[in-house]
Amino acid sequence: MSSVYIVQGDTAVGTDETLVISTILGSCISICLWDPVAKVGGMNHLLLPEMINEGAHTSSGAVAMDRLINQMMPLGAERPRLHAKLFGGSSMLAGRTDIGARNAQFGRTYLKNENIPCDAENVGGERARRLRFWPATGVAQMKFVEEAPVLEEPKTEPANEVELF
């Protein structure tokens, strides 16, 4: 079995039945696409689907989706046959803007607007997810990540009288 791990902004596609694409999601989302006839699929990992650039809104989410679809087409995928699964969008920072909900809404809206059926969805909540996707078969496994370790502040050593410049 071969595996590819993707991080924010990454996309991976494939046709090999032994290939698994994986990632860990917090407030980010991953949209897994596959064409069941061509047995080709792919997954992306995106955050902030809309960016403000010099006063204008641009959709980095739409660009990421186009990149994913465009990488699948040379492998035999056809847009009318695509199916999707949507994951992520957790609310990871209590009391802050809920970017996770915005990301999940982007995923749902994009798939609806592009007439791509979403066969499975697991979004929201407050926990991170570990995701594995087999692009040739469209099989996805999602597991909630147990609590992340609490990071401790580094211990500071008492300063001496030397001034560095």
For the record, give the distance between the C-alpha atoms at the N and C termini, rounded to a whole number: 53 Å
The helicity comes to 10-25%
- Alpha plus pi helix count: 2
Order of helices and strands: EEEEEEEHEHEEE
CATH first level: Alpha Beta
Mean pLDDT: 87
Mass-distribution shape: elongated
CATH topology: 60s Ribosomal Protein L30, Chain: A
Structural class, by secondary structure, is alpha+beta
Could you please describe the fold and organization of this structure?
The chain is an alpha+beta fold and 165 residues long. It has one domain (2-144): 2-Layer Sandwich (60s Ribosomal Protein L30, Chain: A). 17% of the residues lie in helices and 35% in strands. The protein has helices at 60-72, 99-113; strands at 2-5, 11-14, 19-25, 29-35, 40-44, 51-53, 56-58, 83-88, 118-123, 129-134, 139-144. The strands form 3 sheets. Strands 2-5-4-8-9 form a 5-stranded mixed beta sheet, covered by helices on one side. Strands 1-3-10-11 form a 4-stranded mixed beta sheet, with no helix packed on it. A two-stranded antiparallel ribbon has the order 6-7. A hairpin with a 4-residue loop joins β4 and β5. The radius of gyration is 19 Å and the shape is elongated. The termini are far apart.
